[in-house]
Amino acid sequence: MTPNENPQSPGNPQQLSLNDQMKRRLDERLHLAESGVNPYPCHFDVTHFSDSILTDFQDDANETVSVAGRIMTIRKMGKASFFHLQDANGRIQIYLKKDDVGESSYQTFKLLDIGDIVGVKGYTFKTKTGEISVHAQEFSLLSKSLRPIPIAKEKEIDGQKVVYDAFSDKELRYRQRYVDLIVNPDVRQTFIKRSAIVSFMRGFFTGQGWLEVETPILQPIYGGAAARPFTTHHNALDMQLYLRIANELYLKRLIVGGFDGVFEFAKDFRNEGIDRFHNPEFTQVELYVAYKDYEWMMKLVEELFYQTACAVNNSDSVVFLGNDISLKPPFRRLTITDSIKEYCGIDITDKDEHELRYMARDLGLELDPKISSGKIIDEIFGEFVEPKLIQPTFITDYPVEMSPLAKEHRSKPGFVERFELIAGGKELCNSFSELNDPVIQRERLEAQAKLRQRGDEEAMIVDEDFLRALEYGMPPCAGLGVGVDRMVMLLTGQDSIRDVIFFPHLKPE
């Protein structure tokens, strides 16, 4: 409805782009308003949902119910009609008889269409064909739909049921998620399961006694990951701010402050490309636990994924991109150097930037001349190893150049105590034994600053306040970041991040 429209008045149809069906619906809306029917009343009391009616139905009960939802099929007849009402939980058939609801209400019904939202009060019964239904005694229009919704049609051809005119165009479904949710009920189930996954993870963490916290989204210095940020400006302070790319450095400040375990479900933002696994706005949960290391965190991650899968899927295995994936611990462990040796046939141990660049070139990789040795290794791994890791695998012990915030490995000089969990050919989480030596951390960040001077826009910035916090002393600590969207993709079997985000970012129409 446009801002100046009144439900009882015709409004201003010229403001809408009309086709014939919309013109007819606008005429119906006008006719309803002129006959004293408000097409958009304020409320309706709902007592039951479709699924509970179908589940709890008893032949001799004739239970009184009040339901509301959208008309999805409709058969208008002389003095009696049928339609299917879709609510949040499913569909139920409604039987409407003029003698029961009255002449006025039945005439209102004659002006309704598929897509209109209605309320029905009546009693349950079973039709002669055996379909559990609601016999309407009262009927109310709750919202007149001015745009026709795309309803798939079925036709039997050579004994086979063929569906056509389905709302199946991927990009249109992403752009008009509200229509997608109406006409494709399976989509709802993905997002219901997403909510269950997040809820279980939250309970898993709080059950350990760890505190859920909130940290700034607008940050004066961005950090905690290798990524380019979105920038904005605060007028009152006259300063540039960044949408966070990670919340790591703020959560570590809380460990310094005396909390032994903190976590946050965070919206993060990275100004990077868009593909099946990347959206510029995404969700991750980060966890930091004092006095633990990355070996301990690996066991926790195994339990987190295993228990979450069992809780939401009633199974410790999933099917993802056509692969049967088992989430039952223990997961395979493989160092990053061994993984590259296994899948590429080259040994990157002790190789300098010049040698790594030649190795990458021999593998067919075209590299930006500005990137460092750590980025070269990352490119080799991402192109030739990661897609082949289908079963859950911990990739461990990264070169120090790749991980400026991780503690140096206690027995492997030049490496750090870090792991990534890969499953289904994609990284799902990242973890360190966190670096807590402020002197070494400053050296690492200053080295990153030099990479920025070389042109690496994703290199980290020296954060003096974070370094000051470390100088007060941070206990040994294990940190973890889990990509919630990717975890949901895995557990729901969706092959694109856009299928697990209600409103993904797209190019302008």
TrEMBL record:
Q: Which PROSITE patterns match?
A: AA_TRNA_LIGASE_II
Which GO molecular function entries does the Swiss-Prot or TrEMBL record give?
Answer: ATP binding; lysine-tRNA ligase activity; magnesium ion binding; tRNA binding
Name the Gene Ontology biological process terms: lysyl-tRNA aminoacylation
Domain named Aminoacyl-transfer RNA synthetases class-II family profile: residues: 194-508
The yes or no answer to whether the keyword rRNA-binding is present is: no
Which NCBIfam families does this entry report, sorted A to Z? lysS_bact, PRK00484.1
Q: Which family does the similarity line name?
A: Belongs to the class-II aminoacyl-tRNA synthetase family.
What is the protein name stated in its UniProt record? Lysine--tRNA ligase
Q: Which Gene3D superfamilies match?
A: Bira Bifunctional Protein, Domain 2, Nucleic acid-binding proteins
Give its localization. Answer: Cytoplasm
User: What positions does the entry give for Mg(2+) 2 binding?
Assistant: E427
Q: What is its EC number?
A: 6.1.1.6
Subunit structure of this entry? Homodimer.
> Native species of this protein?
Chlorobium phaeobacteroides (strain DSM 266 / SMG 266 / 2430)
Task: Give the cofactors, semicolon-separated.
Answer: Mg(2+)
Query: Is Endoplasmic reticulum one of the keywords UniProt gives this record?
Result: no
Q: Which GO terms describe its cellular component?
A: cytosol
**How does the cofactor attach, per the note?**
Binds 3 Mg(2+) ions per subunit.
Binding positions for Mg(2+) 1 per the UniProt entry: E420, E427
What's the gene? lysS
Kindly report the protein's main subcellular placement as a broad class: cytoplasm
> What top-level class of enzyme does the UniProt entry assign?
ligase
Q: Which Pfam families match?
A: tRNA-synt_2, tRNA_anti-codon
Alphabetical keyword list? Aminoacyl-tRNA synthetase, ATP-binding, Cytoplasm, Ligase, Magnesium, Metal-binding, Nucleotide-binding, Protein biosynthesis
